[in-house]
Amino acid sequence: MSVKTGIDILVEEVEGSLILLIGESGTSKEELTHRFIEDGIEKDETILVVVFSQSSTDYIKVLQEIIPKTDEHLKKEKINFIDVHSFRSLPKEVPPNTV
Prior knowledge:
By secondary structure, this protein is of the alpha+beta class. Helix content is 39%, strand content 10%. The chain is globular and about 35 Å long.
């Protein structure tokens, strides 16, 4: 997968890689993540998102607003989650496609 970012290191192939985006608030980390997810979906790849700052349920709501057919991709298990945020409080109900 490659996403046009204008950042040389991210222009190279990142297929099969684990990418950790960290930075100050307001540095477009979430927007860049959405671009990677959209690119992966367009290429019929399976996406694993590790969420720290919100539950996967909340993140799915965000994706539904920006990525067409998010629910369909979830049913096909093309978008999956490791929900670190929710594991802190041990929810009774686990969101779909969440480990």
